[in-house]
């Protein structure tokens, strides 16, 4: 009976220690910086526009209060219905950032310009997840395919 109580206490302490260390990892300061380019596979579209590549620049850090701060710029290289180049741009503010085991996830809102005659759309939510050589971007409700950088680099600390 006494052994089972000690076993229960040890398991509880081990779990408490594991949960505490997991919380510390999530709140650790982190930084993400980089710029680069990557191609999309054939058939990739964004808001009905065929896109063939992505260019980006990012600089973000976790502030003392645990929130993210920084900027993200994304250019999607596309083709219009008239078979002309269509450049779609997104400029976002980083309000959330987590860096866990070499994977950085940034989030926030920004301004989307489809590169046509229409007005820019303000307040578009985004999430960008990167491992340093890959980028997975969600703009609004559209998840673009994960790409591997062919130019540039991303540093995650």
How much of the polypeptide forms β-strand, as a percent range? over 45%
Structural class: alpha+beta
| Envelope shape | globular
Number of domains: 1
CATH architectural type: Beta Barrel
Oligomer: single chain
Distance between the termini: 48 Å
CATH class: Mainly Beta
Describe the structure.
The chain is an alpha+beta fold. The chain has a single domain (29-156), classed as Porin. The chain is built from one helix and eleven strands. Strands 1, 2, 3, 4, 5, 6, 7, 8, 9, 10 and 11 form an eleven-stranded antiparallel beta sheet that branches. Strand 7 and strand 8 form a beta hairpin. The longest helix has 26 residues, at 2-27. It starts with a helix and ends with a strand.
Could you give a short description of this structure?
By secondary structure, the protein is an alpha+beta fold. It has one helix spanning 2-27, and strands spanning 31-39, 45-46, 49-62, 68-79, 85-100, 103-113, 121-130, 134-139, 142-143, 147-148, 151-156.
């Amino acid at each position: 009976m006494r052994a089972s109580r000690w076993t229960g206490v040890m398991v509880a302490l081990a779990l408490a220690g594991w949960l505490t260390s997991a919380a510390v990892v999530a709140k650790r300061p982190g930084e993400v910086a980089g710029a680069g380019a990557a191609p999309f596979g054939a058939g990739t579209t964004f808001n009905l526009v065929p896109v063939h590549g992505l260019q980006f620049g990012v600089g973000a850090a976790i502030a003392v209060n645990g929130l993210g701060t920084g900027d993200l710029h994304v250019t999607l290289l596309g083709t219009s219905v008239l078979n002309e180049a269509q450049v779609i741009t997104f400029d976002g503010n980083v309000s959330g950032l987590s860096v866990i085991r070499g994977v950085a996830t940034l989030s926030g809102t920004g301004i989307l310009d489809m590169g046509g005659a229409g007005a820019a759309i303000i307040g578009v939510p985004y999430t960008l997840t990167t491992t340093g050589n890959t980028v997975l971007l969600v703009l609004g409700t559209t998840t673009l395919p994960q790409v591997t950088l062919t130019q540039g680099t991303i540093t995650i600390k």
